[in-house]
Amino acid sequence: MTRFLPKSLLGQVTLAVALTLLVVQGVNAVVAWNIEKDRAEAALVNMLGLRFVAAARIAEEGFPAVRIDPGPRRGAEGERRLPRRADRVARRFGNTDFSRSAEFPGFSVDEDRPAIARRLGETLRNNGREFDDIRVVERPASADPVAQRFLRRMAMRRGLQQEDLPKTVAVAGISSGGTWEVVRAPVRAPHRHFGPAFPILRAAALTALLCFVLWLILRRITGPLAQLTKRTEDFSQLPVHASPMEPQGPEDVRRLIAAHNAMEARIGAMIDEKDVMLGAIGHDLKTPLAALRVRVEGVEDEATRSRMVDSIEDITRTLDEILLLARIGRADRPAERTELYALLVSVIEEFEDMNQPVALLDGQRLAAPVHLTWLKRGVRNLVSNALRYGGTAEVSLTREDGHAVIRIEDDGPGIPEGRIAEMLEPFTRGEASRNRATGGAGLGLTIARAVAEQHGGSLELANRQQGGLRAELRLPLG
């Protein structure tokens, strides 16, 4: 589930605000719908209660039906004529009909409304009406002939069209002494056209609008941050001098970009100073070593002379490795896309020329942006370690999860699990002696790891189940 969630600051903030607004607006919409529903039910209860009270007074006092005078009419010749008595229309009370019957007039399409019946009962008792039983149902107006009559009368009086009339009516009845008194009233409930879904959709639309505005605001913040992140990633892989990033966005983000520019300039200056210092060290040390190497040739004892020459060469090789490790990442040219299998072939041929037991398995043809000299040095170090401690080396190239995996395996004793991470640190050797022939200077794996990390990859060491060590150099295919 978490893989579908946004990972950027812009996406997470927008999603959090959207969910919060949707929940709040949704709750408000549901509450408003319930209030509207309760208002409509209260209006219906009051209308039905008024009809029952009025019907009782009509029954007790014998009120006649009210006759409505339609007003003067014009004859055929245009003269005004007074209405005849027969032209007067009798209107029943309240646009509805009151009736008595031995049973409640029920239909199969009726839908009971017990909540409205309870509220209506309380209203009637508060107005002095007593009864034994009460019932309220809701039915389509088209299924009730009585309702159809008074709805037609209401349409004629108010000039309404058929589609403007209520589609349902409420039929209420109270029973007293075995006789049911029944009244009807139209159900006017605007919320029934939409139900609770309409206010929720309205809340969703409002949430979408607010989130769009929020997205535009956050984009002004996260846009420069994304550029700053890309600039930092590029600088971490290849710390070269470049023009400072233009500050943009809000004031806080501008200050952050300015601070990053200052830090980048300071780091670049320190790296330049380091390169100058390393160049001086290399010159100041290699020159005396070369002179010492010449003087050693004058030593008459061959055994002593040989040991002295080996010592000088060890110092020179160690110095070269230290300088190489310090300079990794300071390339004059960007990485070039290289066919990795061909690169491995060239490295393996070097060992084969020295009659070393190295095998290259068939692999995929993969290309990746690499620094050719560095990557060759890293692979050489891993193969040399395999030959030194395992006697043989088997090299393969595969593709896994968007990475090229250069795998070097040997049949040696492996590395104790607790020392695998330690072996990647500088000047850490696989055996306790300081003999260069058996253990080296302890910089081979460190250089290989630095090469992998400089390419955005990694170096992983693991013991094989059948014995030996597996070294995997993982490089992004980019």
Q: What is shown here, in short?
A:
The protein has 478 residues and is of the alpha+beta class.
Features:
478 residues, alpha+beta, Helix Hairpins, Heat Shock Protein 90, 5-stranded antiparallel sheet, 5-stranded mixed sheet, 10 helices, rod-shaped
Description of the structure:
The structure is a single chain. It is built from ten helices and 16 strands. Helix content is 50%, strand content 17%. It is rod-shaped, with a radius of gyration of 47 Å. The strands form five sheets. A five-stranded antiparallel β-sheet has the order 5-9-8-7-6, with helices on one face. Strands 11-13-14-16-15 form a five-stranded mixed β-sheet. Strands 1-4 form a two-stranded antiparallel ribbon. It is an alpha+beta fold and 478 residues long. A hairpin with a 2-residue loop joins strand 13 and strand 14 (403-409). It has helices at 9-61, 114-126, 145-158, 197-237, 251-296, 302-327, 340-353, 372-390, 436-439, 444-454, and strands at 66-68, 73-74, 80-81, 89-91, 99-101, 111-112, 133-140, 168-176, 179-186, 336-339, 358-360, 367-370, 393-400, 403-409, 458-463, 469-476. The model is unreliable at 63-71, 85-95 and 432-437 (pLDDT under 50). It has three domains: 2-63 and 89-193, no CATH class; 238-327, Orthogonal Bundle (Helix Hairpins); 334-476, Heat Shock Protein 90.
